[in-house]
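[stage:ingest] chain + small molecule (SN-glycerol-3-phosphate)
[stage:ingest] validated
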Amino acid sequence: MKLFIDTGNIKDIETLAAIGIIDGVTTNPSLLAKEPGDYRQNLKKICDIVKGPVSGEVVATDFAGMIREGHDIATIDPHMVIKVPLTRDGIRACKALAGEGHKVNVTLVFSAAQALLAAKAGATFVSPFVGRLDDVATNGMELIREIVDIYDNYEFKTEVLVASCRHPIHIVEAARMGADVCTCPPSVIDQLFNHPLTNIGLEKFLKDWEKAQAVKA
Ligand code: G3P
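[stage:predict] done
[stage:export] tokens:
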């Protein structure tokens, strides 16, 4: 399963990309709005760092505007993926942009029916928001299971990109279900590294080593 970072923060991306486990980045207007500087330049820097798919989202809500903004996003870097919302105009824009050979990520997906539309429109990625479903007392990971089943039944090429991940359990469940990608904030990726027994074990190994060296000296 691929791991993407869900942020527009270049420092966080640099830090995690240096470890070598990051396959791509997702952004949205809320995330990019938090960062200083020009968003196009920031997206270009992100592409240069990760050298993998980087989603940049349109803010137009009409078909023509989405196509115009989508074309502009695609000129930033060959790694750019055009993110469009799951609306009628968004699905129409996905179909048109994918037909031109662009990579498209259909976002704000909250049902299997919507995910079916994204696949039929030729999306490269579909982004179901599991955390936001959990927030409204609906099991977000059940939606992932449904989408993976449906895509498998028809061998759709669209990759299931689990978004709005809030904790490591979302990531582990996504991997068990066979989702293609998880995108997580840097804080959640940091949590993946942690286990108290790792720290305790390492401390003991190092102490035992030091003790042995002292005896030999
Ligand atoms: O970028 C899309 C999605 O991952 C947003 O997550 O945490 O704002 O629900 P969140």
